[in-house]
Design a protein that fits this description.
Shape: globular
Strand content: 15-25%
Helix content: 40-55%
Radius of gyration: 23 Å
Structural class: alpha/beta
Distance between the termini: 38 Å
Number of helices: 18
Largest sheet: 9 strands, mixed
């Protein structure tokens, strides 16, 4: 089982005096079950796991009426006793039982010393009608495909991760070409645990591709588990088209030349975002915080995993050639930014100047305190950043500019239209540390 960044947050949750039932969110196949099992085995005397996708277990626990009733059912079925402080209770695929879902509110009140984690890949789309999550009595964490740093650890290259995590701005990077090579491999494999495990076992990129094909098909097969018949064709369209659009802009209307109306497509995109298969990156036209998206502008698509994006575009052999390279790099940057939101989903935007003021777009924007971090993604050798300069000019002192590329780590000086600008130069393979490298601007 791979070491995941989430484990540090799980340990904080375990020791917190105000701990609540934890709902772990994430798409299917990102490793939720594995990370909870690993955490439970390493930090508790016993792990009790209930999987409500198994029909027998769902029937046994669905009729539960109280915490005491639940504890009795656990003892009879699992032959184990729930012990406060010593037991991690893990309920997987919780969306399959409205009874268990409604019971969550009472764990915090009646058994506050019992550690409870629940997960459900389709939780939010299955919650309809009277189904509801007990607001205020639960807390959330989010799990995504492996990041590059997690990939380094998983593939036995933790020495490179340690080195990357200690690098300081201004230091000469030893082995930058090696880090670039591993990052390019990561982009081909992606971060889905099964695909990464195939690389660990030295099965080759062909085996990775087969795994990716099967996982992508499984996501499509899931549609029947949560969609009404009238919705299926729109969900199937988005499932097929969205990975091909990843890293680029799209509109709901006539998505993928389908001829479908914008309203139905939007509902389908929103549904797949709920189950965390994609992220919609909306436009902003201001640097005033808090940030709010600008309506009626195209949206940037970020799909779940860079490996699946390569699969959809049939680009495993020519992945770094041609115009596709730019979108690919935006996908991996967007995916990395999104994956940073463990406790709370990261709100990622892109900046677009008003149409009547001319054309200018900055690839990604993230709020950091009272500042806005503007990131330009450069896949090639160009250093032209007119859009980033325009964004900075619109609100001097508010924007922290970052250029993400293959160039070395540092602070660069630019002269544009008679003004001096300082910009953080950040290599793709150090993107996870972006917050460390902008501190001098805050």
């Amino acid at each position: 089982m791979f070491e995941r960044n989430l484990e540090k947050e799980l340990k904080k949750w375990k020791d917190s005096p105000i701990r609540k039932v934890l709902i772990l969110r994430g798409a299917r196949q990102v490793g939720k079950t594995s990370v909870v099992r690993k955490f439970g085995e390493e930090n508790f005397d016993q792990l009790i796991e209930i999987n409500l996708e198994q029909k027998e277990q769902c029937r046994w626990f669905n009729g539960v009426v109280s915490i005491d009733d639940f504890a009795t059912r656990v003892e009879l079925y699992m032959k184990k006793v729930l012990k406060d402080q010593h037991t991690l209770l893990f309920i997987d695929e919780v969306q399959e039982s409205s009874g268990i879902l409604e019971l969550l509110r009472f764990f915090a009140e009646e058994r506050p010393r019992l550690h409870v984690i629940v997960a459900g890949s389709l939780l939010e789309v299955k919650m309809t009608g009277k189904w509801s999550v007990p607001v205020g009595r639960v807390e959330y964490m989010y799990l995504y495909p492996l990041t590059f740093f997690e990939y380094l650890t998983a593939t036995g290259q933790s020495q490179w991760r340690s080195y990357a995590e200690k690098l300081k701005k201004g230091e000469k990077i030893i082995g930058s070409e090696k880090l670039k090579k591993i990052f390019l491999e990561y982009m081909l494999v992606g971060g889905l645990p099964e695909a990464v495990n195939s690389i660990v076992k030295r099965q080759g990129i062909g085996a990775v591709k087969e795994i990716q094909e099967r996982l992508q098909s499984a996501y499509g097969d899931d549609i029947g588990n949560y969609a009404r018949d009238a919705e299926k064709k729109y969900l199937e369209l988005v499932m097929m088209v969205a990975p091909k659009l990843a890293g680029g802009l799209f509109k709901y209307e006539n998505m993928g030349e389908s001829g479908y109306r914008g309203r139905e497509v939007r509902e389908a995109v929103d549904t797949l975002e709920k189950i965390m298969l994609l992220t919609q990156v909306n436009a902003i036209n201001t640097t005033t915080v808090p940030l709010f998206s600008k309506p009626k502008r195209a949206i940037k698509m970020i799909w779940l995993d860079i490996g699946l994006v390569n699969l959809a575009n049939k680009s495993h052999e020519t992945v770094f050639e041609g115009t596709y390279q730019g979108r690919l790099m935006e996908q991996v940057v967007g995916q990395t930014l999104v994956a940073g939101g463990v406790r709370k989903k990261t709100e990622v935007y892109y900046w677009a100047r008003n149409r009547d003021e001319g054309s200018a777009e900055v690839d990604f924007c993230v709020q950091s305190g009272n500042h806005v971090v503007g990131m330009e993604v450069k896949s090639g050798n160009t250093r032209e950043m007119k859009s980033l300069f325009s964004m900075m000019k619109s609100d001097p002192g508010k924007v922290i500019p970052v250029r993400v590329s293959w160039d070395t780590l540092g602070t660069e000086n630019y002269n544009y239209s008679g003004k001096e600008y300082k910009i953080v130069s950040l290599p793709f393979y150090l993107l996870e540390r972006w917050e460390d490298f902008i501190k001098e601007f805050v």
